[in-house]
Amino acid sequence: MVEPSVEQTGRARRDDSASAPAAPGGRGLARDRDTSGEGGDETKARQRSGGGRPWFRRRRVLVAGAIVLAVLVVLAALWWWYESGFETTTDAFIDTHVVDVSPQVAGQVIQVPVQDNQPIRPGQALVEIDPAQYRLALQQALANREQAQTALGQASANVTVAQASLAQATADLASTSATAIRARQDLKRYQTLRDLNARAVARTTVDEAVANARSAIAEQRAARQRVASARAQIKAARAAVAGAGARIDTAQAVVRQARLNLGYTTVTALVSGHVANRTVAVGAYVTPGQQLMAIVPLHLWVTANFKETVIPSLRPGQSATIHIDACPSADARGHVVSIQRGSGEAFALLPPENATGNYIKVVQRVPVRISLDSVPAGCVLGPGMSVEPKVRIR
Predict the structure, then answer these.
(1) pLDDT tens, position by position, 277-323
(2) What is d(CA 55, CA 65) in angstroms, rounded to the nearest whole number?
(3) pLDDT for residue 24 is more than 60
């Protein structure tokens, strides 16, 4: 059973009071006053309850809604101002200079002491090549150097012999010169005496003096030729010494090359990093320049391809927050290092030819290098991994 409402009860009472006759002595007036008092209380209660209007049109609700809307507008403005101070892109990845490991000599691989993804340090052995043939080459080079040194000693001795021959020839020249001078003087004296007196000197004596003079002159000429020959021998001996010295230098260079080749049989790491893409195995025959494995260095950075319309807002030194897909629990920190002078397409293998055909303008991407200042602990990074950098521009 539904109970009557307050408004219905009040209306019923007013109807009863209107239909009832007025009592003598003013009792009806008192009843009217009571009825009017009850109606005023109902009006006040109705006013306090909102006068029957919906809740969303009440004053308090409207005021509260206006306050909430103002707060949301302020928060949205602050959020827009904050987010507009960053530039971000999804076209970014981890980058580095991957080191390709190749041998410098040919041979059969006898040992590979490293595995994929293994950390390495500079100087650590990566591949061992059979060194037997290179040891033999080194021994042969050493023997050739010994022969060159022996030839140098012989050439030096020949110089000494040639110098002694020159000294002997010089002495002989001096002796023959003195003999020739005396023979000429004797001939001249005999000829003078015979001119004065034909009987003073016999004809045979004069002829003998002429023969002696001619013989002395011939011996003097022969001595001069022996001196010239000795000097030529000295020059030849010295040239032989120079040649022997050059052969020693050549032999020494061959020895150094043989030692280098022997050292190249052990392929070592030049940088610190991790082994990647290992393709060599024990027993394989390798040649110079053949890629055996790669080394991912520890020094990594981010290459972010920003739109060219964003480049005017970027400056070297601006801080950046890098979200790494492989490490979603924490972000890395970094800063802008440099901006490439040119878009990525300009350095592509097949750059676009805008001068031919129909041209459609497309917003280009410019690589920006971002250094990694701090990386979350335990985060495994490598070239090609996707990241999302957010650069603070103000």
Answers:
(1) 999 999 999 999 999 999 999 999 999 999 999 999 999 999 999 99
(2) 12
(3) no
pTM: 0.63
Tell me the pLDDT of the chain averaged across its residues.
81
> Which comes out higher in pLDDT, residue 208 or 24?
208
Could you give the CA distance from residue 16 to residue 26 in angstroms, rounded to a whole number? Answer: 17
Distance separating the N- and C-terminal Cα atoms of the chain: 72
Contacts of 341 (CB under 8 A, 6+ apart): none
